Amino acid sequence: MKHWYSFFGIIALVLWAGGVGAEQHRSLKDQWAQVKQRKTVAPTQNMQQPFSLNQKVLKQLRLGNSLKPGQLPPDDGFSEDRLQKLAPRFEQSLQQAREVASWQIHWNNRQGVPQYITNMADDSPLQDVGAAASGERLARAFIQRYQQVFQIANPDAELERLTTVRDAFQKEHVVFRQKIMGIPVWGKDIVVHLNPDGSVYAVNGHYIPTLNREFADLARVDAAAAVSIATEHLSREAPIVPLNEKWQQILEYSEPIARQYFWEDSRTGEVKLVWHVEIRPNIRDDYYYFIDARTGEILER
Questions:
Q1: Which CATH number fits domain 216-300: 3.55.10.10, 3.10.450.40, 3.40.640.10, 3.40.50.300?
Q2: For a disulfide at 73, which of 82, 111, 157, 182, Cβ 3.0-4.6 Å?
């Protein structure tokens, strides 16, 4: 009798263990399915998707109505609220709004201008420019066409071409330097990338929007005064020894040089007219000073 009890006990124990094992197996299977789902869903939730104007916004633009402008939204998605805030940029025409709707735009939120634009591969060349136009002309025409997005009022006056590079795939990359009132803006440029057929597929750069204030009365410090300020400051730290003729030729430097620029304060975003002064106290060291052209203050070195 004890033998049969033992036999049935063993069978019950096996069935119970199997049930527990199956339950654990199902639990692990469910957990794995959840992990797989998270792995496939999470990245797409975090990625910035190209925005498209919804029917409400398109209807407003079609009727010629202006949507209430707002501050630039953060780069955390393309919500309907963001579409409402971006829509005033495209008031020139509904067609342009539809063209821009497919772009992926990464904003410089401090200055309110695009920092990087992609997803433009389907943009056809500008028909009014001509198929034989140079890359520079096509790039300028493109910025002019979408000046409400770029916020550059006069590309011909504000952008100076530095170089055009053609790569192994026959794509052109046109590099512009930004200028204000004919004066370069320190460290600010725009690069327009074109396909072999002349269509623009990307734009990137660091620049500031067209300024609506005059700077003519701000240059109260001239170049000689700026050099004097920088030289006096540096001489407190190290002796300034004039270079002989041989080293002047090698280093392409003979004396302190002052060049005028517009300069953006990295802390506040304020744009100032400055003198950029270069001083070589010896053959090894090379110092740069940014002197406020209005006050003579040393802004950066």
A1: 3.10.450.40
A2: 82
